[in-house]
TrEMBL record, chain A:
Required for the assembly of the mitochondrial NADH:ubiquinone oxidoreductase complex (complex I). Involved in the assembly of the distal region of complex I. It comes from Muntiacus muntjak. This is Distal membrane-arm assembly complex protein 2. It comes from the Eukaryota. Belongs to the ATP synthase subunit s family.
From TrEMBL, chain B:
It comes from Muntiacus muntjak (Barking deer). Its cofactor is FAD. This is FAD-dependent oxidoreductase domain-containing protein 1. Residues 49-439 form the FAD dependent oxidoreductase domain. The lineage of its organism: Eukaryota, Metazoa, Chordata, Craniata, Vertebrata. Associates with components of the mitochondrial respiratory chain complex I. It is found in: Mitochondrion inner membrane. InterPro entries: FAD-dep_OxRdtase, FAD/NAD-bd_sf. One of its GO terms (biological process) is mitochondrial respiratory chain complex I assembly.
Length: 252, 470
């Protein structure tokens, strides 16, 4: 196997560098550590290039979430919010209109001018790369009734802390499948007292889905919470088992 | 062929040489500069541009921003000296971990706002290639500060100032409070301020580890050792008005290794005092306060360790998931911990009740007599609680005005302070680190103006008092 002599300027720090793997000890001993990681540990140039590529990814998401202030000033908050969501790949529904999605030809500005005063009622941003900054555009929609944020990869607990601004109008919220949302973010949904339907199923970062659902149901008494079935982890008790066997079978 | 002149065995040439050779032989011994005979890889380097005394969150934050704001990659060599790598007594890891913008000074609000933004984007600031992203376990539940009749006017004034700075805080009357949080007993509460965004609590250990990991990747050197001595030089100058001033400059920091007499003199250009509860001792070592009282030379750094208790209890009927960190007007506070109806809380004692900071033993009687009655009065469900455990930690308490000390010392010209935050150091650490780095690199504060927090206020008596201390 290759063994590179560590360059002189690395000598003093190689011992300390090794400590950085203490955070993820299994990772460093994983067989099949890629050649790229090997090179990154030993050459500053490779490390700099990889850091640059990482940074570029982050900047791409930030660019998508820029505030569309110029549209907001010209056409109003509803058009601005709709434009933002459509650009990210979601769909919107104005009051008394059909669901709209951006097609390949782009957004036509003609129909937008007609909808300047019509409030935006429902937004479906499933799978969009919306983050904390991008929520600015949504929070100005004071008549928003239904918000669907399924499978948004950049939506985290900090973002949920901002949703209180939609408390007056929001009736339906769906957070299913978001990888970064945990029970700590769900705690700040208590502001949304008008919420009637909440979907918190399939949240991988929530440590205890059943218990979380019970606590959220207690927190929002008027809301129907769809989530992990809290009985799914429970085993049927002995009395119930014998009852099931003795009683007549009930048709499903 | 060169004909060499015969050199006599005595005389000035040889005397000079002999003393040089003697010096060289002496430097082989421990404490000397040259060590060919034994392994010194465990010692800190002999030379470093900046030495940061204290490896807690403030010290690491200063190191991070120094490396981030340096003009050229690798321009500044930073050494972080931490006495205890297990952080057994460090205030950072023993902290309750809250972050709030509800302060009474605008600078504090700005510091907290920037720190919240830093923590929110922590995976962009502290990203390391090939390492997993950090999960700070942030609870965005906010802080609820309650005020009695006397404090209501001050609270209104503070909230107005906080809103102007950009914090999202709302005021609530007792009726609104009762409606929103039915488990609170609003007797004696005239006004409440509730932080809606960017407030809550997080895991300080994760922040510390994230900073360490990023610093190691940026090339900051770490050393486990204790600072025992500063070697400095003084120069006597005259001010414009004819007064005599003695300016000191620290040249070397002696770092003593753990459990050994071995020490390494580190030559440095700048020393940052981020030693937390022990900053007062470090400042004394550097000669801060050695002088007749009432002069700038005789002004000590008024930071001392104060012990605070944090208790963990279980209460099955306690406040639900929506509970913020509630702070009673009497000084008692509590917050939820996890999903299982466990709560953390404590109370700041008055001056007379201050416990002895010699050790970190917990006094459960303090909970029985002082904390529990106040909590049970405010939240009746807490009458039936059961204490699970408790721990104690230090505040780096600033006895002058309970606010941080940031910036250089006027007389010891290359010592910078980043300490004295009296319980809100963790939440302001990212912003304070940036301010100190700006001071070191540029010479003045660029983003947030922390001139009310300079050391000279202790001499001039200008208090920058922070009223909302938990």
């Amino acid at each position: 196997s290759l063994s590179l002599v560590t360059p002189v300027w690395n000598r003093g720090t190689s011992g300390i560098r090794g400590l950085s793997k203490a955070v993820d000890p299994e990772g460093s001993q994983r067989k099949g550590r890629t050649l790229l990681q090997f090179l990154t540990d030993r050459f500053y140039d490779v490390e700099a290039v990889r850091e640059y590529l990482l940074r570029k990814q982050v900047l791409k998401v930030q660019k998508k979430n820029r505030s569309v202030t110029y549209i907001k000033e010209r056409y109003g908050p509803y058009i601005a919010g709709a434009y933002f969501i459509l650009k990210l790949g979601g769909s919107v529904k104005f009051r008394d209109r059909e669901w709209m999605r951006a097609d390949e030809r782009g957004l036509s500005s003609l129909e937008f001018r007609k909808l300047q005063e019509v409030p935006l009622e429902a937004v479906d941003a499933s799978g969009c790369a919306i983050n904390y900054q991008g929520l600015d555009n949504l929070l100005a929609l004071k008549e928003l009734q239904s918000l669907s944020l399924r499978r948004c990869p950049h939506l985290d607990d900090w973002c949920l802390g901002r949703l209180y601004q939609l408390a007056d109008s929001l009736q339906e919220l769906s957070l299913a499948g978001c990888p970064r949302i945990s029970e700590r973010g769900l705690a700040c949904l208590h502001h949304l007292q008008n919420l009637r339907r909440l979907d918190i199923s399939d949240l991988p970062a929530v440590s205890n889905p059943g218990l979380t659902q019970i606590l959220v149901e207690e927190m929002l008494p008027h809301c129907e919470v769809l989530g992990a079935d809290w009985a799914q982890g429970l085993k049927v008790g002995p009395e119930e088992q014998s009852q099931d066997a003795a009683g007549s079978p009930i048709p499903a | 062929m060169n004909i060499q002149e015969k050199v006599p065995l005595r005389g000035p040439y040889w005397d000079g040489k002999v003393s040089e050779i003697k010096k060289k032989i002496q430097s082989i011994f421990p404490g000397g500069a040259w060590s060919p005979l034994y392994d010194t890889s465990h010692l800190p380097p002999e030379r470093s541009d900046v030495v940061i005394v204290g490896g807690g969150v403030l010290g690491l934050s200063v190191a991070y921003w120094l490396k981030r704001l340096e003009k050229q990659r690798g321009a500044i060599r930073v050494l972080v000296v931490e006495r205890d790598h297990t952080y057994a007594r460090a205030s950072t890891v023993l902290s309750v971990g809250g972050i709030r913008q509800q302060f009474s000074l605008p600078q504090n609000v700005q510091l907290s706002l920037f720190s919240a933004e830093f923590l929110r984007n922590i995976n962009e600031y502290l990203a390391v290639v090939d390492d997993p992203p950090l999960d700070l376990q942030f609870n965005p539940s906010g802080y609820l500060l309650l005020a009695s009749e006397e404090g209501a006017a001050i609270m209104e004034h503070n909230v107005k100032m906080q809103r102007q700075e950009g914090a999202k805080v709302c005021l609530m009357s007792p009726e609104q409070l009762q409606k929103k949080f039915p488990w609170i007993n609003t007797e004696g509460v005239a006004l409440a301020s509730y932080g809606l965004e960017n407030e809550g609590w997080f895991d300080p250990w994760c922040l510390l580890q994230g900073l360490r990991r990023k610093l190691q990747s940026m090339g900051v050197l770490f050393c486990q050792g204790e600072v025992t001595r500063f070697i400095s030089s003084s120069s006597h100058m005259e001010t414009g008005s004819g007064e005599q001033v003695t300016l000191k400059r620290i040249h070397e920091v002696h770092v003593k290794m753990d459990r050994s007499q071995e020490f390494q003199p580190v030559e440095c250009a700048i020393v940052v005092n981020a030693a937390g509860a022990w900053s007062g001792q470090i400042a004394e070592l550097a000669g801060v306060g050695n002088g007749p009282p009432g002069t700038m030379q005789g002004t000590r750094l008024p930071v001392e360790p104060r012990k605070r208790y944090v208790y963990l209890w279980h209460c099955p009927q306690g406040p639900g998931l929506e509970a913020p960190l509630v702070a009673d007007p009497s000084g008692a506070y509590f917050r939820r911990e996890g999903l299982g109806n466990n709560y953390l809380g404590g109370c700041s004692p008055t001056e007379e009740e201050e416990p002895d900071p010699g050790n970190l033993e917990v006094d459960y009687d303090f909970f029985q007599e002082k904390v529990w009655p106040r909590l049970a009065r405010r939240v009746p469900a807490f009458e039936t609680l059961k204490v699970r455990s408790a721990w104690a930690g230090y505040y780096d308490y600033n006895t002058f005005d309970q606010n941080g000390v940031v910036g250089p010392h006027p007389l010891v010209v290359n010592m910078y302070f980043a300490t004295g935050f009296s319980g809100h150091g963790l939440q302001q650490a990212p912003a304070v680190g940036r301010a100190v780095a700006e001071m070191v690199l540029e010479g003045h504060f660029q983003t947030i103006n922390l001139s009310p927090f300079l050391f000279s206020r202790f001499y001039f008596g200008e208090k920058a008092q922070e009223h909302c201390i938990l």
